Amino acid sequence: MLKLTTIKRIAWTLSVLILLCFVQVTLAEEKNEEKNQIEIKGFHFTPQTLTVKSGAKVTWINRDDDAHVVTSSDKKFEKSPPLDTDQKFTITAGAPGTYNYFCSVHPKMTGKIIVEKP
Ligand SMILES: [Cu+2]
């Protein structure tokens, strides 16, 4: 028969393992999100061309002091609200194709998302 302390030890080990799995999943998700991130810095979108699979999330983050508005050139996604410093805007890539976009405050700022079949 198992001693109570042994059972406690097993229970403790199991909870640590479960916690580790959870942390790993969370980290993996964050990494994935980072991969599809477009940084707005120095009045440029970086990377200027991003390739993602249909259904993937794409997030812009504004690292400038000025506000920027992410706007689709051909209405493939909803326009972002004015993004202040460190504010993010996320869309889910829809049908495959090329999504051209620009900043409606500074129209010279342009970028492109290439959406591939999942
Ligand atoms: Cu702008």
Provide an overview of this structure:
The protein has 118 residues and is an alpha/beta fold. The chain folds into 2 domains: 1-35; 37-116, Sandwich (Immunoglobulin-like). It has 1 helix and 8 strands. It has one helix at 4-35, and strands at residues 37-41, 44-46, 49-53, 57-62, 70-72, 88-92, 97-103, 110-116. A 4-stranded mixed sheet has the order 2-1-4-6. Strand 7 (97-103) and strand 8 form a beta hairpin. It is elongated and about 75 Å long. The model has no long low-confidence stretch (mean pLDDT 89). Copper (II) ion is lined by residues 68, 103, 105-106, 109.
Sum up the structure in keywords.
118 residues; alpha/beta; Immunoglobulin-like; four-stranded mixed beta sheet; 8 strands; 35% strand; elongated; binds copper (II) ion
What does this entry show, briefly?
By secondary structure, the chain is of the alpha/beta class. The chain has one helix at residues 4-35; strands at 37-41, 44-46, 49-53, 57-62, 70-72, 88-92, 97-103, 110-116. Helix content is 27%, strand content 35%.
The CATH superfamily name of the largest domain is Cupredoxins -  blue copper proteins
CATH class of the largest domain: Mainly Beta
User: Structurally, how many domains make up the residues?
Assistant: 2
Please report the total strand number as a whole number.
8
Q: What's the mean pLDDT score?
A: 89
CATH topology of the largest domain: Immunoglobulin-like
Order of helices and strands: HEEEEEEEE
- The assigned structural class equals alpha/beta
